[in-house]
């Protein structure tokens, strides 16, 4: 039997869509390209959801109002965002947790002394893998059909209306007809050829992207995204070189290294390129607001490699990565062990140490420890690197997900020029570029995926019922009514 709603993808956004469509009474089939053991896409590697709240709420302390959330997002994107859609995502984040709990997701108690994330982010108990597993259990219990190892390579679309999807099931081609469809199949970060195409060659004729590592799934090849952009004429959004890109341990695996490969001591020391030179302000802002710029910064350095250097004063102040750092009793010895030019390394460290101005060091606040007369400066948490032993971590760009995607509106409909599809919707990484033109702040990807996954699934069911699609604001209003929230939706 052909389903009412076909959901293509297997991560957070796809699962939210499938659950919402099923709650509305539609029959749902979800196609996941990965095997069951690797289901969930990049969502399996997530930890939290960035949430707006005007007062303390269950697992969130203090307040994180809409305007502060918006300013945080505006700062990291440099204004490359659709404010209307961004603010709707922000407002949705205030009320989605009860719905998530209703599908088996649990949140852990507030984290204390962790760079304000206890105020801004709700952490999943058991991480993203537990969240994904909870959603799959809930979906299957509610009658959602799930097929694994079922990649979709093309769609049939007539005058902007979805007709059918062509996929491979058990090695055989299959055509699946549905009355509406949600696209949530991720970006193209795992497609090495497409990364090469986007980033091109450098002046030496090398391919910079060959040095990138993929933090998440190997199954986000972007096949369906390319089909929609190049063959179906869907309206695009975003720059193919922009991505959630983090500086991770250079020894990380090519795929699926996840959170444990991230190097979180950057703001506690200095970062050098392979020539032994600093290239950016390591103390510009709190780490959760700045960690995602460092992958791109390293990608712009010679050989796409960097080195985070700290001393023993930093130990215990950051989440330790899975691999231990290179350790030495002296700075020249550390430089030699890292393969860096010792003389230039020492010139850089000596200049940095001399430029540090004493203050009240506090890594949980924007403190007054800074440099003077140094380019680039270090704005906060600048302490001389003088206490042995010394540690170094080689860094590579780690791509989480790409921002090139499909343009949409607050109904999550796929757009073809001036018109929106009546029965084809998009969510998650395939449309995140509408909100994220560049940059990132911790947890916002899950906010986008949850918000647009839910509205896409809801409207896919509305299309089956031959009702007009509803905007995200309507869903926010329903969430607030369910919580007894009397605040009006702007």
| Name given to the CATH architecture of the largest domain | 3-Layer(bba) Sandwich
Sheet-strand content, in percent, reads 15-25%
Number of helices: 14
Unreliable stretches covering 5 or more consecutive residues: 486-490
Question: How far apart lie the N and C ends?
Answer: 42 Å
Overall domain count: 2
Mind summarizing the main beta sheet?
A: 6 strands, mixed
GO molecular function, one term: oxidoreductase activity
Cofactor: FAD
Keywords: FAD, Flavoprotein, Oxidoreductase
Domain FAD-dependent oxidoreductase 2 FAD-binding: 4-436
Describe this structure in words.
29% of the residues lie in helices and 20% in strands. The protein has 490 residues and is α/β, with parallel strands linked by helices. The chain folds into 2 domains: 5-185 and 222-237 and 403-482, FAD/NAD(P)-binding domain; 244-398, Alpha-Beta Complex (Flavocytochrome C3, Chain A, domain 1), CATH 3.90.700.10. The strands form 6 sheets. Strands 5-2-1-9-21-20 form a 6-stranded mixed beta sheet, covered by helices on one side. Strands 10, 12, 13, 14, 15 and 18 form a 6-stranded mixed beta sheet that branches. Helix 1 (12-23) packs parallel to helix 13. Mean pLDDT is 95; it is low at 486-490.
